[in-house]
Protein 1
Amino acid sequence: MNELDPAVAERLKRTPDGLVAAIAQQRGTGEVLMMAWMDDEALHRTLTTRKGTYYSRSRGTHWVKGETSGHTQHVHEVRLDCDGDTLLLVVDQEGAACHTGDHTCFDADVLLAPES
Amino acid sequence: MNELDPAVAERLKRTPDGLVAAIAQQRGTGEVLMMAWMDDEALHRTLTTRKGTYYSRSRGTHWVKGETSGHTQHVHEVRLDCDGDTLLLVVDQEGAACHTGDHTCFDADVLLAPES
């Protein structure tokens, strides 16, 4: 099978440019690591290879997480949300999830701190 | 102050319709509860009231989580990701986070199950 299962494809609610949001969460700790985008092919490749595979809007290409950095994502579980526009991936992240070298993409910029 | 802090506003990378993605995560357990959208006003209201406030693309209006259902979100922390297009909210969710009555919006549809 070279294409996304039609039974899955028909449940997706895509942006005008054909994408759904994908949240990667570390298995065990529950940390939210990053958010990226997937088109049907990226999702198909993620489901069949268990390697986190996304679509870059800026570059217009697919990318496999860690392919250049070595910071791969092994995908344990993929869930689709109630309205079909967001995926949740439960992963084992190798090394830093963020291209900046941070552990997660949400480490650097706190807009609102917890109440003291 | 009635508007989003310009120092924050200039760090946001919005969709063509002016929105950023917002992931709500339960404090303590780390569960990912839901993903929704925010414009500048929704973010400003969230930061100043600590009540999860979003923008509905389909209805074209702001909504405060739990305003009709009672399933409110108290926001402890807000973080912006490395490329400025996604927010992570650490919240205390009252009751079900999903409008279907499920605990999270990711409970119902498993596309890929963990390896057995």
Protein 2
Amino acid sequence: MQEPVKDIAGYTYGAQEIPQSPVSLTDLEQLKMSVGFTDEDVIYLALAGEVLADQTRSIVDHWRSGIIAGIPHLARHSRGLDGQALPDYLARSNRRFEQWILDTCRRPYDQDWLNYQQEIAVRHTSIKKNRTDQVISTPYIPLRDIIVFITVMNDTIRPHLAAKGHAVDDVDKMHAAWRRSMQLQIALFAKPYADPAFGLNEW
Amino acid sequence: MQEPVKDIAGYTYGAQEIPQSPVSLTDLEQLKMSVGFTDEDVIYLALAGEVLADQTRSIVDHWRSGIIAGIPHLARHSRGLDGQALPDYLARSNRRFEQWILDTCRRPYDQDWLNYQQEIAVRHTSIKKNRTDQVISTPYIPLRDIIVFITVMNDTIRPHLAAKGHAVDDVDKMHAAWRRSMQLQIALFAKPYADPAFGLNEW
């Protein structure tokens, strides 16, 4: 089911240049236990990947244009410092955003996945935001906004999970697996913000 | 609807000794926007408070004895360092846990609430864990476990929200309001962990 990833600017999943995550596979196993993530969730995420594959563009457009664009303290993070639009930046990060939906559903949650989770996290902080796309924008996205916006994503993904006519029980299970994965990823995204080695003040 | 809080050991909501939160009411308003928390959620949380009022003990017992007790890396945080049970510690923190469910539903999200959110957060870190109850236990609860366990609480609260025979649509709205509040609170609980003023290494 794994489709080859088309050329996506700045998308470096599995690349040698991605450093090893400070989060271990043992940490990940414990997180999966704490969040209640099971082998059944892997199966239902794979199904979600099939269901969402041709919807990622409209999902990301809805999140970006339908929601984030209307919330100034969120919208500014993909704009210039004076508020001007940066269409190329938005387009590039949207393509990675789309791919992240598929990676959530299809990638094995292994060392490569952990490494790229850390890379995604760091790209939200002042350590690396803007650098991938060579833009001048806000220096970081506050951790608190990443944490809370997940709830909006969780609420709005459901109709997309139901869009291919699956039984309500299957949609429920896809949705529960999605929410568990999201919260697991939020924990991983919090790592650099809470890491005194970086000394960030970006809550 | 606000019932007087019975004497709960270590429960100091609104007390003068609670420091002002470093999180401002402006931050809170922005977080509410980011998570999609509206006045309708306040109404449905109040309804949830009525529904849950006589169920808090069984809910907390389920979380503690039914789930956390079976996950060693979580259970250890209410035990002694050699793993022995600390029944008084557990009983005291469970009573506060119960009250927190009601506070989630009934308290206005104002400065007192923000201050106590920060107090709860700090009591999970090495700054203050164990001190309220004068026990010797693990020095802190890792931020990552707090983040992910919320999903389990969100999943398991739903039957309790439905237990008083409300229409499915009302249960859905209570549940959505609960999830938004939980994620808002997770953002607030992350604050001390991500605050370089504390320099914690407790992800």
